[in-house]
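Give me the fold.
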Amino acid sequence: MKARRKGWIASVVFGCALSSAVGQTPQSPVTIRLDQAIQMALQHNHSLLAGQTMVQQNQAQEVTANLRPNPTLFTDWEYLPLVHPANGGFLDYLHDSTEADIGLSYLFERGKKRQLRLQAAKDATAVTRSQVADSERSLSFQVAQLFINTQLAQSTIDLARQDLKSYQDTVNISEQKYKSGGESENDYLKIKLQLLQFEQDVQLAQLAKIQALSDLRQLLGYESVPADYEVEGAFDYQPFILTLGELQAKAVVNRPDLRAAAQGVTAAGSQHALAKANGKVDVTGATNYSHVNGISAITFAVSVPLPIFDRNQGEIARTNFAITQAQEQQAAARGQVLTDVRDAYEALDTAGRVAQYYRSGYLEVSQKNRDISEYAYRRGAASLLDYLDAERSYRATQLAWRQAVASYLTALEQLREAVGTRSLP
């Protein structure tokens, strides 16, 4: 009875476990869109996160720059006896014959050095913050570029599999014709040998996708996405109407590297003002209490360096030239921004025209040419060479079209990077 009960219980447990296992459905891979990928990279990319710590480091330097000098406490007790005094008591000797001093000194900074140090540190922080923003701009473009490469690889895989399936049907028909005597063995072998190219296309496309996903994962933050993630989004040509003048004006306002160059001029001016302030001498004030030979006294002292030789002339001259250097760098950055926008605009315009060529009829022509040649070959109305040539032309046209779309989308992302914003007019 007990054995039967145990067997029944075991059957129930196994049945529940089996039902649970059958009811489970495999989880679909994580898919991300382009905007999600960029946000993930901005939040999890380790190189960017390391660069962002420079802002916090500069803010810590602001704290240091705003600190006041520490006061100095000094004390001494002199003429202490090594042996017991011969005349009088020991305490009387300490009171009447030794000297004790205790005092406090403080450096008074002149020329508003502390305020200027703080301003210079804040200006340096502003430059660093803009440089980090420029790193984010570059990272966004890199993510978008790899994202498009992944989409291109997936589209190529779809094309290669479609071509492989279609050509496999052709091989099967050719084999039947060969066995029935309607085709020579040489022609059949040529058809079958061409199948290797289609199989190789599938494998190479899959490898390209794996590598693109791996490189993209590194930019997103290796731990932020699982290994089997996928990308999704439109991979097609969409006309974009833009004007060069508006884009250049928008870039001048938005580009963080140009903003960093302008802030560099301000920071150089702050350093020059600080250098001039450092040329002014500081005053040290001190007060001292002394007990000497039974007499107590207070001493006040003031010390001022004489600026005869060192008036910080070299640093003042250097920072003055640094202002000119920063101004020239700002002018160069502005020119570079305008050049980047123009180059990206022309690249997008050219890529768009190339894509329009394919959309204007060449895709349909290649498709129709392949279909007609295949139909004619299967019915013996076209030669093998004509069919293979049409097949190669179709495959080359389809691959070129997908590469043209990828080039156009990449050029669009490059234009977004050049303008400094993903929101274009």
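The longest strand covers residues 99-108.
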